[in-house]
Design goal:
The complex is a heterodimer of chains A (294) and B (397). Chain A is mostly helical and 294 residues long. Chain A is built from twelve helices and two strands; from the N terminus they run H-H-H-H-H-E-E-H-H-H-H-H-H-H. In chain A, strands 1-2 form a two-stranded antiparallel sheet. In chain A, strand 1 and strand 2 form a beta hairpin. Chain B folds into two domains: 192 residues, 3-Layer(aba) Sandwich (Rossmann fold); 156 residues, Rossmann fold (3-Layer(aba) Sandwich). Helix content of chain B is 46%, strand content 17%. Chain B has a seven-stranded mixed beta sheet with strand order 8-7-9-10-11-14-15. In chain B, strands 2-3-1-4-5-6 form a six-stranded mixed beta sheet, sandwiched between helices. In chain B, strand 4, helix 4 and strand 5 form a beta-alpha-beta unit. In chain B, helix 2 crosses helix 12 and helix 6 crosses helix 7. The termini of chain B are far apart. In chain B, 58% of the residues are buried. Classes of the chains: A mainly alpha (294), B alpha/beta (397). At the A-B interface, helix 1, helix 5, strand 2, helix 10 and helix 11 of A face helix 2, strand 8, helix 8 and helix 9 of B.
Chain lengths: 294, 397
């Protein structure tokens, strides 16, 4: 029994990380209806920004640097490539296709940019607070992983409170539900989209700073993070923030049990099987809302 | 008169062309294609370091033998294989068909090696493999393919003997699900079955993209083996070692051997810290296998150029390019076939010893790849200075 509890806790630890990684991806889809294929690279950029800034200004201000760095890249990208005029002018492509292609290209650009600036080496990052490792009968967890996990859960909790308890959060949710009404009320939709996109990129960067001490920082790290994030977001329901948290935790637990009890070779498969089952039973994911046409 | 003028002009132009064409052909440089992984998901560290090794080889060759061979300049054309078979195919086809290279060197992954060797064979161009370990590449017996690279049966030989030496009864191999990882554990399993049938061998395959392997380690911890063999590359090998420590199985307490050579990759100690102490490793550039005089010069040159300590990738990149250059020199670079013939007969001092190709134990393989099994004794210790646990064999397998 103790072994199973250990696997469960291990899965929840992994799931907490997955949920945090996926949160910004879920938000940007929920509000902007954009599938950001550069999401993993924004996490990687945040990790590198944290790694660089921490050596000069210390770890806590480095979180801000990670957020700002990814935010600025997202803002500039949206300003020049992604605004509505560009989308409207993307003849031959639907806006959705245009978004996929351009964000994918941005991801490649960020990856190769990181390779040019930092080289291919794998960089180790020290956590902001050096917690002692926990060794109980059912949980072994290193200090950096524990601290990263605390940060991830705090981040998710604060984001949840922001979305549900603040007027700006409510505005964002309203905009996600009815963007046309928002334009009718006089809100500059292009600017709104840009700010939301940039903020979500910034949040992805911040997540990169949280997880950097656990998973190390290297240019191609983004691909693995993006894959997990997409599975979690689809599993939880695209655009559903609560669904992302539930999806992340469930994904972590399923992976952990599958890997430990069946075969670690098919670890990724367990998550995808779960995803297929959930999509068969509930095509909008676990907590996704059904999209209604007018 | 006009007709005569036209005839004279045409004759003159023809005469000029007939005299300049061979000259133009003479001035066409001899080209070496260098196909390696310079970007993800391939082993970028190895790719980029080997490129510097190749550059040093060309510079040293020109300094020693002059800038031209048979009146022709020599140049290297670099192509990125990205550690991906499809990208390798594009890179190799460009080198062979568009750039019309005379010989190709490179390769950092066995999955690339299969593609590169097949295209080299189809186009009858010599290919010197740098770092693709899978024996199966040699077992295709393509006459155009030569290997200066380590090979899986060499590693298997080392690990099998290490297992016997340590009196291991229960051996677990954990491997990434790649051509390399799967081939490596299959070979060690077969060798142990033959040479040490009492050893109980089990395997665990891990997805190459997996970054959190704690669930696998939890299941290992339920029934700890005497020795864990890890056939992975960085960063996965780094993370696996650190996570073993995190879950209470540090290499200082649980015997673990790195089979994939990740201890030799940049950033090992930064990432694993104390967790790496006690780790055994299959080391390809140990100080007990001293480099040649030429190798020392290469290392010094690398330090001068980059201000970093050289790794085995520098020497591998140097040796493959050096062998190709010497084959070009021997053959005069007259044709692809002439270079292949020269490679067959070559016997040249490289950075790690005298390089030549035999058909035993593997087809057109440099058999004497130097290695030891070493143990990491303290944080920051380079693998080349690790404590030798299993000595290199005095004769080839």
């Amino acid at each position: 029994m103790q072994h199973y509890i250990e696997i469960l806790l291990n899965g929840l630890v992994s799931g907490g990380y997955y949920a945090a990684m996926a949160a910004a991806l879920s938000l940007v889809f929920g509000i902007n209806k954009v599938v950001n294929f550069a999401h993993g690279e924004f996490i990687m950029v945040g990790g590198f920004a944290y790694f660089t800034a921490a050596t000069f200004i210390g770890p806590f201000p480095a979180y801000i640097a990670a957020f700002v760095c990814a935010l600025v890249i997202g803002y500039v990208f949206h300003l020049f490539v992604f605004r509505r005029r560009s989308l409207d002018a993307s003849q031959g492509f639907s806006p959705g296709e245009y978004q996929i292609i351009t964000t994918f290209a941005l991801g490649m650009l960020l990856l190769n940019g990181a390779l040019m600036v930092y080289g291919p080496d794998i960089h180790s990052v020290a956590p902001a607070i050096d917690l002692p490792r926990v060794r109980s009968s059912v949980l072994f967890i290193s200090g950096p992983r524990l601290f990263g996990l605390i940060q991830c859960f705090l981040y998710l909790a604060l984001l949840y409170l922001f979305l549900t308890r603040t007027s700006l959060g409510r505005l964002l949710r309203a905009a996600s539900q009815n963007p046309a009404a928002m334009s009718t009320l006089g809100v500059d939709a292009d600017r709104f989209d840009r700010n939301v996109f940039a903020a979500c990129c910034g949040l992805a960067g911040l997540t990169g700073a949280f997880i950097a001490p656990v998973f190390a920082v290297y240019p191609e790290a983004g691909a693995a993070f993006a894959l997990k994030s997409f599975v979690v977001v689809v599993l939880g329901g695209f655009g559903s923030f609560t669904g992302t948290i539930v999806g992340g935790l469930l994904f972590g637990v399923i992976e952990s049990f599958g890997g430990a009890l069946i075969s670690s070779a098919y670890k990724d498969v367990f998550g995808f099987v779960l995803l297929l089952v959930v999509l068969l039973v509930s095509p909008n994911g676990l907590l996704g809302e059904r999209v209604r046409g007018v | 008169m006009r007709k005569l003028l036209r005839f004279t002009t045409a004759t003159f132009l023809l005469a000029c062309a007939s005299t300049t064409l061979p000259a133009a052909a003479q001035t066409t440089p001899i080209k070496i294609g260098f196909a390696n992984s310079f970007s993800p998901p391939g082993n970028v560290i190895g790719g980029r370091e080997s490129k510097v090794g190749g550059e040093i080889a060309l510079d040293m060759f020109k300094a020693q033998f002059g800038p031209k061979v048979d009146g022709r300049d020599i140049e290297i054309i670099y192509e990125d294989t990205r550690g991906d078979p499809e990208a390798s195919r594009s890179a190799m086809e460009k080198l062979v068909n568009r750039d019309k290279v005379d010989v190709v060197v490179g390769c950092n992954h066995s999955s690339e090696g299969f593609v590169l060797s097949r295209i080299a064979h189809e186009n009858k161009v010599g290919f010197v493999a740098m770092n693709c370990w899978a024996d199966d590449i040699r077992q295709q017996k393509f006459p155009e393919v030569f290997a200066v690279s380590n090979y899986t049966s060499r590693t298997s030989y080392a690990v099998t003997n290490f297992v016997k030496q340590q009196g291991v009864k229960n051996f677990l191999m954990v491997a990434e699900n790649t051509d390399y990882g799967l081939a490596q554990i299959k070979m060690i399993e077969a060798d142990l079955k033959r040479d040490a049938p009492d050893v109980k061998v089990s395997t665990k395959i891990i997805n190459k993209t997996s970054r959190d392997m704690r669930d696998e380690i939890l299941s290992i911890r339920q029934n700890p083996p005497d020795l864990i063999g890890v056939a992975m590359v960085a960063p996965q090998g780094f993370l696996f070692t650190a996570q073993l420590d995190e879950l209470g199985m540090p290499p200082s307490e649980q015997k673990v051997i790195d089979i994939g050579g990740f201890v030799d990759q940049a950033g090992f100690w930064d990432n694993v810290k104390g967790a790496g102490v006690g780790l055994y490793a299959y080391v390809l550039d140990h100080k007990s296998n001293p480099v040649t005089e030429l190798g020392a010069k290469v290392q010094a040159e690398y330090r001068k150029r980059t201000n970093q300590d050289p790794t085995r990738f520098i020497l591998q990149g140097f040796d493959t390019t050096w062998v190709a250059l010497m084959a070009i020199k021997e053959s005069g670079g007259k044709s692809r076939e002439a270079i292949i013939q020269a490679l067959r007969k070559i016997r040249v001092v490289g950075s790690r010893g005298e390089i030549f190709f035999t058909d035993e134990p593997l087809f057109q393989q440099w058999p004497n790849i130097p290695f030891v099994v070493g143990q990491m004794e303290k944080v920051g210790q380079p693998p080349s200075e690790s404590k030798v646990v299993f000595p290199p064999p005095s004769s080839k397998k």
